[in-house]
Every structure is written in C-alpha cells, then in structure tokens.
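Exercise 4. Each item below gives a protein and its sequence. For each, produce the structure-token representation.

Item: Dehydrogenase (Humisphaera borealis).
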Amino acid sequence: MNRRLVLAGWIVGCSALTVLAASLAVLRAAEPAAAPVAPAAEQPAWHRCFLRVQANMVTPAEKDLYRDSVTLSLAGIAGPYRVYLNGQLIAEGDGIPDEPRRRFKVPKGILQKTVFNVLAIRIDGKAAASGIRQPPILAGYFDEVIMDRPWDVIRGELAADDARLKPVAEQPKVASYIETDFRQSSTPLNQNAETMPGRRLSPAESLKLMKPADGLAIDLLMAEPLVAQPTHISFDERGRMWVSQYRQYPYPAGIKMISRDKYYRSRFDRVPPAPPNHDKGRDIISVHESTKRDGVFDKNKVVLEGLNMANAAVYGKGGIWVMHTPYLLFYPDADGDDIPDRDPEVRLAGFGLEDTHSVANGLAWGPDGWLYGGQGSTTTSRITRPDVDPPGTPGVYFEGCMVWRYHPTKKIYEIFAEGGGNTFGLDFDAEGRVYSGHNGGVTHGWHFVQDGIYLKQGVDPGKFGPPANPFTFGQLPMMKSRNPIPRFTHDIAMFEGTALPEAYLGKLMGADPLHRTIVSAERYPIGSTFETSTSGTPLACDDIAFRPVFLANAPDGSLYIADFYEEFIAHGQNYQGQIDPTTGRIYRLRGKKSTLITDVNLASKPTTMLTGFLSHPNRWHRQTAARVLGERATKGDRSATIFLKALLKQPNTHPALEALWALQQSDALDELTNIAALNHQAAPVRAWAVRLPGDAKTLSPTMLAAINKLAMVETDAEVRAQIASTARRLPVDQALTLVATLIKRDDDAKDAFIPLLCWWTIESHLDKHRDAVLALLKEPSAWNPAPVKEILLPRIMRRFAAKGTRSDFLACASLLDAAPQDDHRKRLIAGFEEAFTGRALPALPTELAVALSKSGHASPALRVRLGEPAAIDAALKLASDPAAKLPDRLTMVTLFGEVDEPRSVPVLTAILKGAKQPIELRKAAIGSLLRYGDAAIGTEIASLYVELPAELRPSAINLLASRAASSVELLKLVEAGKVKVADVPADMATRLKSHPEAKIADAAKRLFSNEVTPDQAARRAEADRIRKVVAAAPGDPYKGEPLFLQRCGVCHTLFFKGGKIGPDLTSYQRDDLGTMLTSILEPSAEIREGFRNYSVKTKDGRELSGFLTDSDTAIVAIRGFDGQDVRIARADLVELKPMEASLMPEGLLGGMTDQEVRDLFAYLRIPQPITK
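Answer:
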C-alpha cells in the first residue's frame, strides 16, 4: 500500500486552523506495486502526535485525582473520526464543529511513563481532506498541552495493533511534545456535549454498603429522580424539609466562559440577569413533608425550578430566600402556600461566579434574626443592595473566603468575619456560635467570631491573596486539632438533637466526601475558642460515589445528610464534564433505639405554647421557636413578651438564651432587660447581651458603663472576646473605653482571639484619632500589662512605621520618648524594625532620629543620619559590598539620596554601572544620584543609557530631566533616537517645552511637537475596537501577567504585585470593561484622589513631577513615574503646583497585537492572584 507523509501546519491567525493535507504531501520511499486501492481522496487519514506526559498523569495514588482527570479536547473535525491512544480506542463520533470543543476522558492506565505515547486521530475519507481545523488539547487537572505544531499524517488503513500506534522510546523528529510543553491550564471550558459520569449504584445497593457505627442506623429518605445534586437542607417552622438541588453546576446557563486560570477560576462574558428575566437553568428548590409524621416524606413539591446557580434556600420572614449567585433573592410568600406572591426581590447583588463550587452558599438563620451565608475561597464579591443603594454604588468588595450576613427588614449587609476555610455551609450551635468546615487537612473547621480576621485557608498568602487590611499584623487561627486528620471535613454541624445516643450530644459532626465518611470530634474550650480531636466515625460507606456534602440537625432529632453522589467529586473534574447531574440522595442518621420526634409543626402552636419550646431538648425546636416568636411579634402578637422576660431570668443557659434571642427578634429587648442579662450567671447569655446592643454600632452611656463594668470583672474568655468584637463596631470614645479595660488582663495575652481583636479596634482609629489612641498609654502603669507589652506596643509602632508619613514617624518618636522602661523601648523598636523587613529604611524626621539614638538602640542607618563619621564610612563600604544582604544595601544606597555625602557619588555611580548588581539596587542608586548637582552625573548616565535594562530607563530619564544641564543630555538622546519620544512622559515633555532656558525649550518643542491628543470620537472608536477584540476570542491570564507587569505594573499594584505610583487596582471594578477602557484611553479624565500630578521646583535647580506621597509643614515627598520617592524640605521648594494631566500616559495599548490585548484584559479581570 502506498504511504505518504503529510506535514500538517497549524496556520496561526486564521479563524479555522486548516491542515493542508493534500497539497503538502511528501512521497515516502517507493514500495512494490500492490493491489488497487481507493483513490487518495477516499482513504482515511491518521493524524499522529507523540506525547511524553507529566509524571502525575501516570503515577497511581491512593486518591487518584490526577490520573482520573486527564481529558482530550477536540474541535474542528469535519466528519467521522476515531481517536486512539497507544492503539486503544478512546473516542469516536461523526464530527465536531470548531466551537464548542468536545472533551473525552482518557481512561487510567493507557498513558505510559517516560515514553512517547502515540495519540492518533483517524478521519474518514472525504472528511480527511479538511484535516483537523483546531489544535487538540491534552489536559490534566492543573496543566495542559496545546498540540498546535505540525502533526504526522498517514493515509490508508491501520490496524489497532499497528506498531505505528504504539509508544516509542526515542523522541520523534516531528509532532512530539514533552513535559515542558505543558503549561498552566487557561483554555476556557464549556459544558460538554455529553457528561462523563463515574460508576454508580442504585439507591438500594448503596444503602447496603453503609456502615453506621454501633448503636446507629441509617435511613434512605429520598433519591433520584426526586432529588439530585443536593447541596443544602433547611427546615421551615412546619418541620418541612427544603432541599436545594444544584443541578446546573458547574456551568451557569446562558453565559460563556471567556478566560480562566488553572484553579478553574473563570471570567464570563456577562453577568447573568436575575429572575424572572434570567437564563433558565436546571436548579430546583423543593419542599418535602411527612404528612403522617412517621419519618417518611410522602408529600414532595417542586417550589422553584429553572433556576441558575441556586445552591441554598431557607424559609422565613415572609417568604423564601434563595442564594441564586450572583444574587440573594427573596420570593414573597405571605400565606405560606409555597407559591410566590410575585416576582422575586433582588436583595443583594454582586456575589462572585468565578468558581461555581465556591460561590456564596450555606444560608442559615442566625439566632439574632440575621440571615447568614458563606463565601468560598476562590470567588470575589462586590455587594450592592439594588433596592437601597443608588446607581453607581461601588459596593462592598471582598476577595476570597468569608462569612457574611444580611438583616431582612433593616436591609443591612455586613461581612461578619473575614477569611477562614473554603467556606461551605454554616452551623450555629446551641449557644449561637457559628462554624464552618474546611476542604483541607489540619483542622476540622473554623469557629468564627464577630469581626474576626482569619488567615485565608489557613495558609500563607499566595493563591488566596493577603488580608484586605495591610495593617492586620496577624490573623485568628482555625480550631487546632489534637490529632492528625485526613483531608477533609467539608461541612460541619454540632449535633444537638435527641435521636442519637447521648454520647454524640454536643459532638462536632463532619462530612468528609473524599473519604466517604461522617466523622465526629470532641470540642475542648481553650480560652475564647476551641480545640478538637477526632472521636469516631459514625458513618462510613463502601460505595465509591457516596459524597456527603451537607449536614443538618433535623426537627425529628436526628442528623440529615445530603449526598451529592458522584464518583468524581473534585470540582476540576466536574468542570471537565465528569459529573452526573441526575443523581443525589438524602439520608437520616439516628440511634437504633432512639425515638424520632413527631411534634415538629411549630407554626401550628399558639404563641403561649410556643414559649415552652424554648426549653425543648432538641436544638432545632428551641431556635426555630425563638425565630417564630420574633416574626409573630413584628406582626403584632406580643403576648409572649412577659413570658420571655421571665424565662430570661432563669439561671440555666437554656431557655434564658433563647428568650434573649426571641426578645431581640421581637424588638422587645429594652435596655433594662439587656443590662440585667449582662449579669446573668450563664456566660453565653452575657456574651449575647453584649453583642446584641453592639449591632446598633453605638451604645447609650448607661449601656456602655454596664458593659465596661462587666469587662472589668468578666471571668469567661468568650465574653471578653465578644466585648472586644463589639468595641470594634463602636465610635472611638466608646471603643477605646472598652479596649482600655480589656487590655489590662495579663492572662489574655496568650489567648488566640482577644489580643488581636483589641489590636484591630485600636488600629481602626489610628489615622483619625491618633491622640485618643496614644492617650491609652498616658500613664506609665498602662504600659505594663502583658497584652500591651507583648501584643500592642510592637504593633502600634509597626503600624506607624509602615504607614511612613512624617506624622506617623513623629508618633513613633513620641512613643519612644514616653516609654517608661527600656523593655518597652525594645518592644517598640522591634515593631519599628519589623515594618522595614525586606525593604529600605526611608528618611526619618530629626525628632525620630534623636529618639532612636537616645534609646540606645540606634541602627547603622540612623547613625549615618546623625552624621557619625565612622557610621558613614561603614555605610559606604556596606553599599559597595556585593556579599551584604540586599535590604541592608538598599537602605544605605537610598540613604545617600537623603543626606548630603558627596563621597557617595562614585559609589552610587559604580553600583549603577554594575551590570551584575540587582536591578532594584541600581534603580535606588539613580534615585539617590538625583540629589547631587554635579553635571558629570548627567553626562555619565546619558552615556550609559542605551546599555541600561528597560527597568532602569524611566529612572534615568527622570534624573536627566531634573536639571538643566542633564536635560540637554536627555534631548540629545531623543534627537539621536536613543530615547524614544514615547518614553518621555507627556508632563515631562510639557515641562521641558516651557523650560526657562531657551535652548532646552526650543529643542523640546521641536522634538515633541508631533504630540496629538485623541479627540473624544477617536477615543470612542478605539474603545469600541478594543471591546470587539476582547470579545472575539479567549485571553490567557498567564500570558497577560507579564504584559501587566511590563505595561502597568511599574505604576499599579494588582493583588500584591506591581508598583505603588498609581492606585492599587485590586479592589477596582475590573470586571467593568467600559470603566477600565475609560481609565486607559483617557487617564486624565478622572484622577483619583491622592494621585494628582504635581510639578516641583527646588532651590538647587531640580525640576520634578509626580504625586505627593507625604506632605506636612516640614517636608513634601514626590513620587515620579519611575516609582522613586524624593523627599524635599519645604524650605528648599521654589514651586509646588498641581497639574491637570495624569501621570499615567495615553497609548498604553499601543503596539500590542489583538491577542496580547485579550491576554492583558484576561489578567486584569482575574478575581484572585494566579501566581505567588
């Protein structure tokens, strides 16, 4: 048979990448004549490539995530095809369009280690001429290889056992890919044409494989088709079960993914509209009732259907509340007939959709009457209240995991606690503490306190970004486990029912979908929080598809379990299409000998009878009764108020605590009753008696005095922690009154929560009420309590030093002067030094320099500032020493730009000329040379300019333009073409054209005379063009990151990368393409406060421009387009004048290809950092 080799080229830039199979045929070695064969046009074509894959794709593991997550993505095949991998058929079909792509699972065991695996795609005769128009993609869980290089093509039939379809040891010369060809995945994904579900058993078969612990029994309550993909269970006051069925997951209906990162965080082409005008999906909210009260749910109703990304629902406060990302919806249902009275109200908007397995979730009624929810680690929200906030409201921005809450009648939205695990599901225990699980190891979960700031995911910032407040200086920990635990307890609930044996009462119950178990754990009070230890496995299952994802204390006293029922549970696999949206089960875990509660319809109880349920042994009854009493009171039935006040006086925690909650929800908690509750013998009652009035964010004088009196004598750490949380919500005088009392307790210095909660209260007032904060330390005795010495002193000093304005540094000096003892000064200086870890020490006011010197702990840099000859000699030596630590060298190099030391000029020049010196050191050297007026400096830098790396050229241009003599050198470079006109900022060109020296002004006018400012019509046309470019094809955020750092990162920070010349873009509305285009194409149209450009002239002849980073009566600090701060004494100023033009240049996108534009915007619009 004749054989031909075809070199198939992927033609880059075409809308369809065509394989020129026929025209590029190259005849192989001649063979003997054979029997007649079909014409070449009718013969099949075998397209081959060779892949040596990453080790994790072929290495077995206990949880075989990576081998189970290999897929092949195909597109652009015109006719019937079959796909073989190492001779095994893995896919076939009748053809695939160019879009959308179709993914196929690569079965485990076919790919082989260390060899070149053969991927062959056979295309039938007539279709073979069209070849494969889109490059195939082999993807693992995190990485992918786009096979867009020439493929080997063979004409004719091949048997499956043909040697040419088998792996080869040596790398072929064509069509081969190796491990380094894989990149971090960024190709947008779409919902696959067919799902690739895993193995499954019938509900009855799965039930037989359940292994409840001794004394326990498991009941199957419902299964598919009645329920599928359940992610949330709640109960209304009639004892009915509401189930949220997340059947649309993972792809939102009606919108298209346009970019993503390796963690499956995606950007879509638009924000989906809210119901009733939404894109119809498959999600369902259903309600289920046991009409015979026998534990069998015989009445089942779909209440809402066609929803799109609806993962949680609760009933109460007059209707149905649904987490329908990106919206919190309220469906009014005043008569409770489960038929909404009208279209839903959008109460909150702006929850992130970037990762649909981490969207806002876990709706739960708090005992205080607020609606609580969680947000996962890989989404970002910007919350507005459409029925309250005016158009254009920027919203409440938060990146990553947190707990939020919303008041249904006051319409207030708050972030309750920042950080935590990948929050999914919330649970309130009997005392009203809120918890969530975790999708990592180390901990069973998180105990959240009001206004707490927790480390995101329990790991260092990287994938999840740093804390929102850079002056947090510490985060609250997760609950420490006393024993090693496997990953993970995805959702947790404190079991506080009646239908499990008593040994389980109060236990932490955790759903572990990865190991297909329900685990239990002990809780041990440790100060203001808890530690845990695993105590058992109440339920295990041998069905590989059993995936418990949500637990709920039920009205019947048992524990309900939502089973997502999937063999493949990792969200990346679900995005790949390895999911079955038709399966799901709900189980009940109970004691074999336990009696289920049948009296569960609290809605039918008279109000006077309902108060009796506040003492019920089942937690659900107590907390639901409190909520229903509150709802009835707000509708006019206040007959329970007198009974509630009597119950509050009872000595036991329960029902006194429930009575307090019911009074609060009834708007019947008067101040006298609240103050009396502050003296209750049960600590949880006292804690809530502090928290509830604090929600108003101000206290009456009487209430403040009562809480402060409690703070003086309170013995319970949880109560003290709540006082600290409440303090942070109050006006400065009230907040500091409470903190001043709390920080006197030595034993709280080691508490996990209290010291940091106090610190954050203090920190929140340092900018506007500095004197009030420092007044806390007015008396020498106030410096001695352990929380002050160990926690607060170093942090206050570090905060002032890190902020770094002149007034902040003067506050540092005041603290050092006021410190009563050397131990206090040491702690202050430790905080000061920590502020400059890894970065250079800036210029310090004389007052601080003197204070540091008097302390006896003056640093080498400080001694240079004080003019000590020996220190100056040592500093010059250190600056020149390549073996010294870079931060130390940076400090000294920067220092010589702030003190007059002519001997530093040759040292600085040598550093600049040293090609092997670190870039940041060379940049600092240029900044320091700017101080010195020697004309030879400009001449030297001009001669070096063409050899300087791109990162240093802006600083060199800035220096050359700063003085008359060196400006001449700059203009010579421009005229010679060595400095591009575009590299000279517009404000600098304007300044040179108006220079007082005629030769400079004339040359500048000649060289910069062709500047053209686009008119509005041209800007609009360019904006429309870019919109079309961005929408035309996907962008790659990983390729966009270096473009950002090159084009934007010199000035702007995104997450924790980039410069600090312009505004930080992290919380900017980067999902709004129109707003971004306006800022890019017309940067001077709207200049953010604090970033106005200023022109500066000094007595020593310097001319600078930039924005003010610091200013007081003594100095100004100007930051130019090179990112360097220059501090100038006001006495040395000739002129300081604001300019109308932005420091940001126009033409930022000039010279970029369309794909580069798409990649840049894909990066600019990512919700969270993609690299560390």
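Check: The chain has five domains: 4-184, 203-222+230-462+474-591, 605-668, 670-765, 1019-1164.
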